Each structure stands twice: as C-alpha cells, then as structure tokens.
Batch of 3 targets.
Target 1
Amino acid sequence: MAIDLFNTLSGTVEPLAPEQANELRMYCCGPTVYDYGHIGNFRTFLHVDVLRRVARLQGMKLKHVMNITDVDDKIIRNAAAANMPISEYTAKFERAFFEDMEALGVERPEIVPHATESIPDMVSLIQTLAKEDIAYRADDGSWYFRIAKFPDYGKLSKKDFEGIEDGARVDVDEYEKDSARDFALWKAEKNGEASWQTDLGTGRPGWHIECSAMAMKHLGPTFDLHAGGEDLMFPHHENEIAQSESATHKPFARHWFHVRFLLVEGKKMSKSEGNFFTLRDLLLKGYRASAIRFLLLSVPYRHQMNFTFEGLTESANAIDRLRTFAERMRTAIFSGEENSELAALIAEKQQAFDAALATDLNTAEARAAMFDVVRAANSAADQNKVSAENAKAILVFLQRFDSVFDVLTDRDQKITKAALDWAEKEGRIGEAAEGLVEAAGLSDNEIQKLVDERTLAKKQRNFARADAIRNELAEKGVLIEDSKDGVRWKRK
RNA sequence: GGCGCGGUACCCAAGUGGUAAGGGAGAGGUCUGCAAAACCUUUAUGCGUCGGUUCGAUUCCGACCCGCGCCUCCA
C-alpha cells in the first residue's frame, strides 16, 4: 500500500515515492538547543515519528537525518546569560531534548549531525554559490544569497515576490545587502561571539545553510522528503531550496511535509500569553507522557490542534481503556469457539487502520479502527464468544497499532520519576503537583503489600478494612480492580 | 493588505453527493459485599449563516459571519 501524503511543494496529496523503492531518505529540521523543548516542538517531531513508523510498516527502510542547531543568536545570548561555554550549554539542552523525545516515544533518527561539526560542508557550499555570483560578500565580511538569481524563489510557500519593492523595509543593520530579500549565508564575526576561521573569513554560519549542507552531505543533492513545522516553510525551507538547487542545479527534496501548529487554549503558544508549556512542565503537573503523546497524535498533522488539559485527561482515560483491553487479551483464557464474525471484523478494522494511516496519516481514523475492535472484542469476551484464535489476531492488531502509536507499554511511572529527579536537581520540585512526589515514591512492592492485605481482609469479610485500604491507595493514585481472575491494580 | 486553514453533539474529533465514525464526559441498566473494569441503552432530523446547483448537500459553488496561522532566523 502506497502512502498518500500531502506535498507542500505541489499543493496536493500524492503518493510518497522514494527514489529507491524500499528506502525512505528524509531530512527533518531538528531543534535549536537553546532551551527545553515545548509541546509545540514535540507535536512536529511526534508526527514525523508517525511518518517514520508508517513508512516502516509499509516495508520501507529509513535513512532519516535530523540536525541539531548548536550555534545561533539565542544560544549565544542564553549561554552568556547562564555564564556557560556554548558547547556545555548546548550539550545540556541537547541531552534534555533527547530525554524528552524518548519519554514521548519518538524514535531517534538514524543520523543526527551537528551544525558546529558541519562548518566545512557549509563553507564549501557557499563557495560553490560564490563561483556563480549567487553568494556575495558584503563589506562587513558577511555573505548573502542573491535571490534575484533564483527565479523559483517562493515556489514552496507560494509567495509571489514580483512587485515587492527592494529596500522597502530594510533593517538598519542590513544595509549592506544588495536586496532586502537577500538572506545571510555567513555572518561575519562581531563582538567576539562564537566564530570559525574559514576561507570565507571569520564568522559563523547563517541559519539556513546548515540544513542544506547537512541534508545533502548525508542524503545527496536530491532526496525523498523534507519535514518540519509549518513556520519553517518560509523563509527557512524556501531558502534551503534556493541555496541547494542553485548549487547543484538539481531538485532538492521532492516531497515537503509540514506539520501545522499546535494552539494552546485557542491561541498560539507564547510565553507572554502564559500558555507556554515544555514537556517537563506537564510532567511536573502530573500528566503522563503517554497521554501527551496520544493527545498530540490524535489530531492529524495537517490540522491545527488545540491543546487542552481536559484533552490530556481524556487521552489518559482512553489509554487506560486500551491497556486494560490489551491486558485482558493477553492474559484471559479464551475457550470460546472460533467467532468468525469477530474474526472478520478484526481483519476489516486492521485493514481500515492501515488504509487510514496510508491516507495522509489519518491518525484519528486509525485510532477509531482500533477502538472498534476493542468494543466488539470486549463485548464478545463478556459473552465468552472469543476463541484463542481471535485473541491471537487481536494481539497482532494491537501490536500493529502500537508500532505506530506506542502507548500500550506503561513507561509513565519511570518517566515521571525521572522528571521529578530532574526538578529536584534544578530546584523546581516545588512546581510538582500535589501528591505527585509521594505517589512516585510508592514502590510496587509497597502497593502489592497493601493489596494483599486488603484481599485477606476481604476474605474475612472485613469490608471496612478492605475499603479503607482501597481509599488509602486511591489517594496515592492507585486504583484497585477486583475480577474473576484476581485483583489488579494500576497507577492512575 | 497578500497567502492559507478551520467552524460537526457537553468536550476532542473522522468523514461522505444519498442521509452523521471513534474517543472522553454525563444519565440509566447488567455485573459486584460495595466499587472498579467490562458490556448494553442513551446524548446532533443535525454538520457556522444565507443563497445556488442537484431527484437529493453536512459533503459541490457563491456570498457573508466567526476563529486561527503564515507573511519578522517561532516547531
């Protein structure tokens, strides 16, 4: 099944067709490691992760490159404010970034190059452009890209630059450019800021050049797909195209994938709006990593998504239902006769699941297909109409579902605990939600001991004691469920 | 101003030229010592408004209203 995917460049949904049929070679703009990642960042990476996983489900191998931008204005500014060397500062936030990605179940791309390790590649790319007079050196030693030399400029973001007057809005410190639209390839060293001595002079790279250089270094002049947040479409990706195609005279990425913005409480997230959240903020508030992942994936990537705390709670509940169901399918003994009706439904829904994902990554519809099976199978199981074969087929589907959504395995406790440890170290433990520290401190053994005690009390028909234990555990976020197959408990 | 997206039940949300998936929440019920879990029933004659095309529109077209994003090295 081919994956149909919207291509920003063509403006239509078209089959994702890797040049080498069984390998998807893609580039995704990675983080600038100047601070902790916020949930908007992660929405993008999460949907790129889904793309990866769906491609793999369709039998493709992956060569996925994601850069780390470890030098830029914000980094220089923040590192100075923190009184840390830049490399130490960026290392800290890069580490945090990958911890967060792991917490959210985002797979690590195959290749993760750093901007600061790719300077020579950028320099040589700029030199190539300079040979054709596309790159030019300004009086202060900075290098710019001459947009007039690239007639296709604007083809990605569908902007028509004809008629825009040069110099209409020139910044004071940009007066050296030939045209206001020209963008920096290389910034001359100033004020003793981070710089490299190169054949272009002493300075540091402009933002866009790093992605062109790193993408082409690892994927060649033309590759299958380029991804990023919608805001990167212009100017970042437009500039990448201009630089790369001017240098190689070949098409750059063939398919462009953009994830639309996340809104929080109906507004674009921003610190001044007070609706700005990092992953760690949410973990400290007591929300589970799996719920955050599931919520961020519940709205397809091409739609704006409005993030709410209510939504997080709903997602957590939905995951609980899935996990309970998966556990039931794994552990219950199914002695029913083969239920061909159920078997047909499972097959049909699994197909619907695949089809939904292959249709521009419709995660909402894919989700629904899984839930259709949950309800039908639970219902059948209640009537003892599930065969061992049925259960097996359901487990296969669940695994397929989880190979994309990755929420069934409960890593939440561990992740929350790690977040609390981090908060302790950073002096932010005061922000932790009430009871969170206590709940995290409660070990499985301690819980089991209380559960056993309650079971004994129940046997002795000492219901008052049993209920007291249940309430005590509930206060610490542990729910007890009695069933025919014994007592289960889970952390809420 | 230019470009683009969206307005579907209490909340989130999918979708189609032929009469509204799924999740969460609420209500009632079955089960249970009581709960929980699970299941059953139930919650939009309705898909922003007004026109048009059509045998038929939520789905196509037009206008309007509302919300949002990009056009500033913000995912």
Note: Residues 163-174 of chain A have pLDDT under 50 and may be disordered.
Target 2
Amino acid sequence: MGSSVVMSSKQKVYQGVLQKIRQYIDHQHLMPGDKLPSERELADTLQAGRSSVREALRAMELLGLIETRRGEGTFLSTYRPYETVELLSSFILKEARTRKDLFLAKKILEKEAAKLAFSRIDGQDLDKLEHLLHDSLMGPTDRHVAFFKYLFAKSENLLLARVWQLMEEFSHTINKLYYNKVFYIELVQLYSTKNYQLIEPLFDSFAIVDDQME
Amino acid sequence: MGSSVVMSSKQKVYQGVLQKIRQYIDHQHLMPGDKLPSERELADTLQAGRSSVREALRAMELLGLIETRRGEGTFLSTYRPYETVELLSSFILKEARTRKDLFLAKKILEKEAAKLAFSRIDGQDLDKLEHLLHDSLMGPTDRHVAFFKYLFAKSENLLLARVWQLMEEFSHTINKLYYNKVFYIELVQLYSTKNYQLIEPLFDSFAIVDDQME
DNA sequence: GGTTAAGGGTGGTCTGACCACTTTACGGCG
DNA sequence: CGCCGTAAAGTGGTCAGACCACCCTTAACC
C-alpha cells in the first residue's frame, strides 16, 4: 500500500480499495485482532474518498472479515466462513424452498454425521445420548436438535455441522421436524452393538415426523 | 418497505437498510433481473442517508446478490458468488483443517447425489456420461465438475446441488480436485449394471486426487 | 498516586456537489 | 405521422465536508 487505487475502466473505486486492503493484510502478515489503518488514513494513502473506503470496509464487514469499532478502529477478525454461508444460504435456501429438498438434504447430513461419529462414540457418549432420550422435559424437536448437535460434534467436521445447523435453523421457519422416537433408540442401539452397516438402512427406513401434519 | 430503518442500539444503519432491502425483495417476489428502487428513493423511503444505502448495496454487490449499472439502476442478479469466493479464498486457505472439512463434506455430497441419481439414470444418461469420460479435450477438473453437475441435476435436489456448487467453487480457489479416472468409469459401470449397493463402498475406496501434491 | 476532565483520534451518518452514463421527452424536419 | 437529434431528467459513482458518538490518552488537580 502506498499507491493510489488503480482505476481500470470497469472497476469501481471500492473494488480497488478492497484489493489494496487485502494486499496490505498479506504484506503486513496481519493476524486476527490486528488493527488496520484508519479510514481517513486509508483514504489519504489510496487517494480515494473516505466514502469509497467505507464502502469497501462495509463489504468486508458483512463478510465477517473485519470488525469495526467506533472510537477504536478497524480490526481483522477471526475469520468465520460460516457466517458468510449463513447469509448466502438465506438466499440459496429461499430459492430451493421446497420442503422435500430441504428435509432430504438435512436427513442426508444427519445420516453422514451419524456414520462419521460412529468410531468416536464410547460408553460415556452412549450414556449422554440415552440421557437425552429419557429427558422428559424436552420436546421432540429440541431433543432432535440436541441429539444431532452431539453427533455432529463427534463427527469433527465443522463445515458439515454448520451447514446442517443452518438447514436446521432454516427448517424451523417452516415447521418443526424430528424422527419417530424409536429411531433415536435404535440408532443408539447400533452404536452400542457397533453395527455400522445398519446405520444407512435405519435412516432409509424412518420417515421424518412432520409437525405440521399433526 | 415504507418505514424508516429501525435503529437498534447495536445495529448500524447499513445493516438495517440491508434487512429492509431483503424484505422488499421478498414482498415484491422479485426475480433475477428485476429492478430495485433507486438509491435516492431508498434513502428517502428508509429515511437514511444515501451513503448508508450505498454501503448496504456495496455489501450486497460484493456478495453477488445484486448488480448495479450506472445510469440504469440496481438489479437483482442471478446469484453468482464468484467475487465473494475469490475474496474468501485468501482467508479460507489459512486453515488447513477447514480445508479438510471442505473436501470431505464435498465428497459426501457427491456420493449422495450419485445415489439419489441412481434410479433416474437411463441409457441416454449413460451415453452422455461416457461421452464425458472420453472427451480428451477436457482436463480432469472440468470433467469432474461436468460429471457431478450432471449427477446433481439428476438427483433433483436443488438445495444439495447449490450447496455442492458453492463448495466446489470454494475448493477451486484452493486447488483443483478430482478422483482417479478409474473412479468415474466404475461409477458409470455401477449405473449400467444397476448396482446401487456398491456406490457407497466405491466412494469410500477412492481418495481424492489433490492437484497440489503433483 | 488516583481521579477527573479535556483533547485528539476513531468510526458513523448525513448532506451536497459534481461527474459519467442511460433513458425519456420534446422539438424540428421530411 | 414518423423519425432523428438534442436537451432534460434520472440513474449510479465519487468525493469533500460537517457533525456526532464513542474511545483512548494525556494533563491537571487533589
């Protein structure tokens, strides 16, 4: 950084600013928490208007790349791609807003998490899962969410977990979904008897209970 | 739309503007290509400054949600996340673990699409898939993308397809990935011999070829 | 040394000016 | 009446400037 924003005939100033900021972050080896130059300084250095700098920063902020704090400055944030997926998914899910697509996609993720978690479920986990199933203070949807949150944590694939969570949260705007209670009991049994090959057939044999039909 | 931006104590004006625009898109059932109100009109209607409106629009533009054209206006775009993906990739690369998550998640989706497509693959589809495999003008990555694009279309689960597409585009910024060529041939064979039960083991037995290691 | 107030710096928001480009409207001519 | 050219109106794009809310640092006072 030190040169003005390069103005290609098609590129808007905020896009040039964005590129320069990214280069600055790279060259300075900035880590999350590190401070960027002030808006005014950026505007001076890049010979752009402060508004144009702000437009670039707002775009980055929405993507979760930076955090701006009034009176303090602009800081590189711990990058959380999942927040971006959240915003994007709100559009994606809207387009694909058929119940069938959503529920099947979610079921697939749950099934795969169940299988990924398989080798990591020990006796203690079984206890916790069974405790969940027998907690009579929990409604079926909450139990479902807690159950699979547990399994997704065990799967140790954060991206899958987050995508599932977004689908789960989004599906709540449609209605509440869960499997028949026998399903959960049988899945825990499969973990108990170490019967990996029966996980997929189990998912295939249980239909989702659709709260809206009741 | 018609009320001013609600100012919560923590929310910035541009975030409120963003919400209102999203609501407007919903209420008007806007489709890609449809025109949004002008910046000045939005500023009047939402009782915000034009700069604040622009900040919100820049953020949406960077996400590929809208397209602004000087002299014409602001249009809802057919969702194309290319610019976003490029911007995010420089940050997503920093986490090797995220990378591992991404590849595994993508493989899972590809596997499930292959299975969902199973019952819809006919002789004509087989011809097309085989044609893909024998197109020597295609590099391995392009072939992989075309191959699975085809399968996801056959799966008829638009949500899964979109999530996979997003992951696929993310992963391209990291490196180029595909399976060993024998994989595709064997999968087409499974379709030909109608051997559904072997799809999952096939995916389990093939490692992803990582271009970066070559 | 501790506390408080002031000063300087930060981001946040808005207004206004002006430019480049597109679309619309109007007038003149055939 | 239709077409063409020009001007006006409308669009986004950029910048400067003003002022506010907040934060941090420094200086002054007890």
Note: The interface with chain A takes residues 14, 18, 22, 26, 51, 54-56, 58-59, 61-63, 65, 79, 81, 84, 87-88, 90-92, 94-95, 97-98, 101-102, 104-105, 108, 112, 157-160, 162-163, 166, 200 of chain B (CB under 8 Å).
Target 3
Amino acid sequence: MAARAGVRAARAALSGRAPGARPPTSRDVASAAGVSQATVSLVLGDKWRGRVSERTAGLVREAAQDLGYRPNLAARSLRLGRTRTALLVVPAMTSEFFAQVYTGAAKVAAEHGFGVVLYPSPEGIGPARDPFDSARTALDGVIASSMAADALASIRGSDLPLVMLDSDPAETGPAAHVNLDIADGVRRLTEHLLGLGHRRFTHIAADVDSWTFVVRARALADALTDVPDAELRTVRAELSVDGGRRAAEAALGSPGPRPSALVCDDDFLAAGACKAAHRLGLRVPDDVSVTGFDGLTLATALEPELTTLTLPAEQVGARGMAALLAVLEGRPAETGDLPVTLAVRGSTAAPRPA
Amino acid sequence: MAARAGVRAARAALSGRAPGARPPTSRDVASAAGVSQATVSLVLGDKWRGRVSERTAGLVREAAQDLGYRPNLAARSLRLGRTRTALLVVPAMTSEFFAQVYTGAAKVAAEHGFGVVLYPSPEGIGPARDPFDSARTALDGVIASSMAADALASIRGSDLPLVMLDSDPAETGPAAHVNLDIADGVRRLTEHLLGLGHRRFTHIAADVDSWTFVVRARALADALTDVPDAELRTVRAELSVDGGRRAAEAALGSPGPRPSALVCDDDFLAAGACKAAHRLGLRVPDDVSVTGFDGLTLATALEPELTTLTLPAEQVGARGMAALLAVLEGRPAETGDLPVTLAVRGSTAAPRPA
DNA sequence: CCTCGGACGTTATACGTAACACTAAGGAGT
DNA sequence: ACTCCTTAGTGTTACGTATAACGTCCGAGG
C-alpha cells in the first residue's frame, strides 16, 4: 500500500507533475488535444494515414509532448498479447563472452522496442523457482546459447519461437540458428601452428559436451589428418583457469615426447596452461606454444599475449536477436556463419629443434 | 498478425493444449473449480484466510494445477500499477564484476517474483533511444552503480525508488546505499605492503571520477600519512589493460628513484602494470610489487597471481536488490558496509635493498 | 434532387487481474 | 423475535491500450 503510493508519486514526478497525480494516459492526451482516445492511439501508433488529418495529428503529438505522455507497457502488452520481451538463456553470466552476447542482443532489441531478460543457468538462479516457468506468459521468444541437452529440455518443450546460438544446425525445432564458422577458424589456427613447425599437439578440451566444443575437437582432428607426422592427444579439463592448469600439467608432465603446442578450448584454459608451463619451468612460447579460444580481454592481459581465435560475441547476440525478430514477423532469418578471427600473438612460436 | 498467431499457438503448447486454444485464464480456472473468478484470485493470491473454506481453496488450486494456469503478468501489472521489475544501471556489462553484481541481484529478485533488466551504460545501447525513458512506465525501482554524475542525472530526475551501489553515502536522494568498506581494505593492503618494507608507492589511478575511485585514492593517501618516509605518486590511467601498461611504463621509466610498489585501481590496470614491468625488463614481484583491485578471475589467471582486494560483487548485487525491495515495502533497508577481502598472492614481495 | 463514396473521426469493447462492496445463510446474544 | 456478527463467498468495476465497427459531413456524379 505504502509502496504502491510511493511508486505512483515517483511516476508523477517523472514528468514534473505534482505528487499524487496519476501519470498521463492516452485519454488525458485526448482531452488535451480535443479528440477521442482512439484518435490518440491511431496517431501515436502511426496508423493514421488517411484516417486523421495532418492538423489533428499535429495537435495530438503536441499534447502528448506537453504532458510527457508515455504509453503504459503493461496495458499495451495485455491488449496486444505480445510483450516485446525476449529471453536470453546463457550458461553463466559471469563470463565476459556472454556479457558481450547480451550487449549485442540488447542493442538490436532496443532498436525495435524490445527488452531482453536473462536466464543465467538453471542452477545459478536458485532451486526454488524456475524463472522460465514464471516468465512464460511474459515472453515473445527465446534465444538460447549452446548448452547441455537436458538443460534445454524445458525450453524446447515451451514451443516459443526459439533461436539457437552456436549449436548443431541439424537440430530440428529451433526457428533459426546463428552459427560461427568455427571449423574454418580452427583450420586456420592449426595451419598457423603447422607452419611454425609444430607436430605434437595436445588439445586441452572442455569437459562439457556443448556442440561448440564438439566442433572444436572435430575440426582440430580433421585439420591434422592430412599431416602424416602430426600427433594429437586430448586431455579434458574443467572450464576454469585451474582446470586448465591441472590438465596442462598432466599433458606436459606425462611420459613420452612432450607436446610442443597446447590448443585450449578457451582463454581461461589457456591461461591455466601458461601457468602450468611456468610451474614446470617451461617457457611460453619458447618451450611450448599455447593457444586460446574466444578472444576475451584476458588474452591480451597475459604475458605473453595469447594467440587465440576471436569470436564476434556481440555480433552473435545481435544476429540472434535479429533472427528472433524476423521469425516473429514471419520473415526468413538471415543465414550464413559468422567469421571468426585468428589473432596471432606472443604465445605461439616455432618449436625448438629436438 | 502472423507473428501474433505464432506466439499464441506457442503459448498454448506450453501447457499441452491444442494449438489455437487460448491460454487458461483465472476465469477458466474458476469455471473448472465451480467458483467465481474473484475466488480464484483470492485463493491463488493467498488472501483467503477466513474468506474461503479450506475445501474450496483446495478445489481451486487443483483446477489451476490441472489447467496449467499461469497468471498473465501484463494484466497483473496493469491492475496493480506495479511491474515487479527493477532496473540495474551499470557502466558496462562487459565487465565480469558487474556481471556478478547482476547475478546477485537477479537471484534475490527471483526469490521475490521480481525481474531485473539492465541499462548497460548510456552510450552502449545506441544513441537513438533512451531505454530508461521508454521503460519508465514498466519499472518499480532502480539500482545504480557508481557512475559519473551526469550519467545519473536522468535517473535521479525520475524519482523512482533508487538504490545506489558503492557511492557517496552523503548524497541525498537515493533511498538506500549499499557500500563496501573499501577504506578498510585499502588500509590493510597498504599495511601489507608497508610490512614488506615498501616505501615508494605509485598509485595507478582510474581516470574516471566515480566515488569508488575517489575513496580508493583517499584511503591510500590516508594510510601513508602516518609513515614518515613513505612517498606516494599518482599516475592516471584509462581503465583497460593497455591503459595500465602505459601508465606503469611512465611510472617505472620516469626519472628519480623507481617506485617499488604499484597500487592499481583494478585488476585490468594491474595486469597492464605487470606487462609494463616485463617490457622494461623488471620482474614482478622481485623488482616491483603490483596490486590489483576487484578480485576477478583475471587476478588468478596471471603469472604471478595478483595480490588484490576481492570485492564481494555478487553480495553487492544481492544486497542492492534486497534494499530496493525493503524500500518498496516501506521497511528500512539493511545498512552496514560489506567487508572486502585482502588476497595476498605472488605479485607482492619485499623490495630488494637498494 | 438524390445518393454515393471518401475523408475524418468516434463509440464501444476486450484483454486478464485484483479488490471493493455487497449478500445470503446460519448462529449467538438479549 | 429482533438485531448483530461471522463465514463464505459473488458481482462489478477499473487499470490503459488498440482496433473493429460504426457515424457524419461534404462534394461530385447521375
């Protein structure tokens, strides 16, 4: 009660009105302009071509301006059955990568009067409530990044328009896919390492089965099949700096010839790999080359800077939102993979002759 | 038109109903339970103690369950004048710190049926639209982090309930403040460095005038005033790895005795400082100690790991949201500064005797 | 002179919810 | 027998918007 009155008074002050007064409605604008509420709705909704005279339209717009009229979003949503809100499902918001994806999506959304809400990982938000469940009536569509299949189940079951980011294009169900040309990037990265003379590779692989990591692994293996003397091992690692460190220590410390290049599934793992090398008394890139993935700030914060594949995170989000908007309007979504960039930096160099 | 039909069909499928059917409303539940819509509202709104019999309440709940009834949020908002949505204003979403703040706020919000939307920096979202402007009618309150004063102007002017994070407690206007005991943290950090024997300090300071950075500078100066032979210089730096590198190169390369400790305003600056030291052929921590601020993942990704002040980012967000909820309900918000943690790691050591 | 169709608006209604005001029945108190 | 209270609900309304369906005026064509 007190809270409600507080909110109301606050709203009033937004437009410089006296506290206690209601915010202006389309009806207020109507009486100020001397027309009916319906006309206000037509004019401000840009649906008046030929139905309202130029002069009246001007009057309405002026009155709306004077009163500081803002349409009530709740009322509009109720009337239209649409909410102009999309859900972005990400595995974890704490990653800079998904923060950028969100930013890109939010920018495009804002241009179309849409909002974006987040659903940051099933376990992150507390076990008691399923925010997706409670938000269902307030969503127009869902943009979901690559996640474990079971986490997606409840989303798939909803049948809301769904756009998938960086995930298996063969999957049926999603209205659209926004994918990256990761295979091409990995191929270029591998060629870079091969060109430097590397032949013994160890893949520090994420221990989750997201499509994106499956592709990374496959592309790396594919790129090395043509090279007769190349050798590829794989060590799985928890997705964290420390997980990368442990995996790399195992890889570098294991018996047999030491790998000369550690290809890591993301920049955090690569940072861990660099730490592992340091602990074992090896130097990067002189004794071992290390590559990352994602192109986060972290990649240039390290010494040496990481050679990495930079993903256009913001573009992914932007394109995802654009695709959702297209689907909602019945247009075909833009297709074609987004390119990734190979950033060659200090963490890779020619291996020392054995 | 087509889009609207698509959304409607999708909604229907959410509850396993045939496509084309409307989602169930409270009136549908009412007729299924053999009561009036008003009774359904009472029961599901938990306002029926003494007004509806236990038996009838059970019937209503059962019917709601069977039909998969979800209240329509738009209708509820329209009726109540409240939206159960808060705005979180952050300077940039790309930072891990604010991502964590968001996570904390969203968790608490979800527990109370609230949502959180983001307003990621005035310039970040595109110049054409002011999302705060368009969202005003759909907000119950605002949580804003420390920003430049002018960026806050339009928010302050709104008079919506406002909670400020890590900002000047003397500021009037905000309904509540959530602050960190940064002064205490800086004092402990300084004592740590003094204890190691450091006397020549250079503060790599952020070149923005947010309250939090003002406090950091002041606390550092205060902690050194009692130490007669201590010396403090300040170099301002753009808030980025490269900004930190440039500032540190200037500090370490300038004439006169070299500083033995670089106290940086955040972890990115500290990472840049480490790179600068490396470029100048100095070793961290043997030749120069470096400290960070924030305690991001970055701090432990570097080699050596950064000694830093770890801020409880998620707690900040959680407490901010809790404070906003308190204000909205007319309760006093919890007060008291949140503690920060000094994480002593490899980037600080005793200076070499001159 | 009649009517017919633009041009310009208006009236009325529905969206789904929450809450106020009311009622009807049954029992207690006097 | 009368009022008064409690229990257990119901009828109605309002929130603010968008739009379908409906007038009205007026000049032109027959």
Note: Residues 35-39, 42, 50-53, 56, 75, 77-81 of chain A lie near DNA strand C (CB under 10 Å from a C1').
